Amino acid sequence: MEHAIIESIFRRIAIVGLGLLGGSLGLALKKAGFAGRVVGQARRAETRQLALTQSAVDEVFANVAEAARDADLVILATPVAVILDQLPRLPSCLPPHALITDVGSTKRRICTQAAEFYGGQPLFLGGHPMAGKERSGLENADPRLFENARYVLTPLHQEHLRDPRVQAFQQLVVAIGARPIVTDPQTHDVAVAYLSHLPQMLASGLASLVDERHSAGTLPLEVAASGFRDMTRLADSPYSVWRDICLTNTENIRTAIEALIQKLESIRERLCDRELEQEFLAAHRLRDKLREMS
Questions:
Q1: Looking at residues 107-126, what average pLDDT do you find?
Q2: Range(s) of the chain covered by CATH 3.40.50.720
Q3: CB within 8 A of 222, min separation 6: which ones?
Q4: With bands split at pLDDT 50, 70 and 90, how would you rate the model's confidence at 241?
Q5: What CATH homologous superfamily does 188-293 map to?
Q6: Residue 115: is it exposed, middle or buried by C-beta count within 10 angstroms (0-12/13-18/19+)?
Q7: d(CA 82, CA 78)
Q8: What is the percent of the chain with per-residue pLDDT over 90, rounded to a whole number?
């Protein structure tokens, strides 16, 4: 994708929120050769200056409405709670032909609210790039962040997939190196509860447990090797990123945690039993499937 040139019906793209994902989207669009204008929005003056310095955007605003005005495509790249707050405010700022999408990590609440305010003019398309880093913030933005990553799309109605704006956005997704996949908001939220949110809770919980033992003087951290470091890599993620995710996907995450507890209890009972091998074999099968998908 190094020199891909994007021919698109979008001539002006507004990215609301210039953190890791928003900044990386701006950089990725530039890298792919997007010929239009990319504008951004950020509340903090330091972030606005950094966005210009890094050339993540061509122009940057403090006000959301000002950034979105006259945009053909608006990408909401803020935390989930902020997206939910922004959705009712934006229709009056946008031209009827605009497409508005988001990068929120949960989709049911966002899409349910969007359906109340976006009937097609402008049009809403739910989105979630399955890409990220443990460290957030524009300073960690990377134009290659989306390469080979799945980019989940959750349209409000299946017929929206035939809309030229949605088709053009899918082309943008491909141009930045990602692979679009379409599903419904409910299926998405159940899937990410197991595949994204549960691993985060596990990494944070494990790191917290070991910290407690270490602080009590019963566990020397010097014994930690690469396996433990790999398992707790996600523990670097800030709570500010995960608060809204937990609040908007509570039941699915709770169900996933309960399923994991049951699995761990089963493993505990099999520690001295050859049946434990079946758990390892099942784990190997899953890893093989993931390698085949990559």
A1: 95
A2: 12-183
A3: none
A4: confident
A5: 6-phosphogluconate dehydrogenase C-terminal like domain (1.10.3660.10)
A6: middle
A7: 6
A8: 92
Q: What fold is seen in the domain 12-183? A: Rossmann fold (3.40.50)
Tell me the whole-structure pTM to 2 decimals: 0.91
According to the model, what pLDDT value does residue 94 have? 93
Q: Where in the chain is the domain with CATH 1.10.3660.10?
A: 188-293
Task: Give the C-alpha separation, 56 to 48, whole Å.
Answer: 10
* Partners of 38 in beta bridges: 13
> ω into residue 122 within 30 of 0, thus cis?
yes
Q: Are 73 and 98 in contact (CB under 8 A)?
A: yes
Mean pLDDT over all residues of the chain? 94
Q: What is the pLDDT of residues 24-67, one digit of tens each?
A: 999 999 999 998 999 999 999 999 999 999 999 999 999 999 99
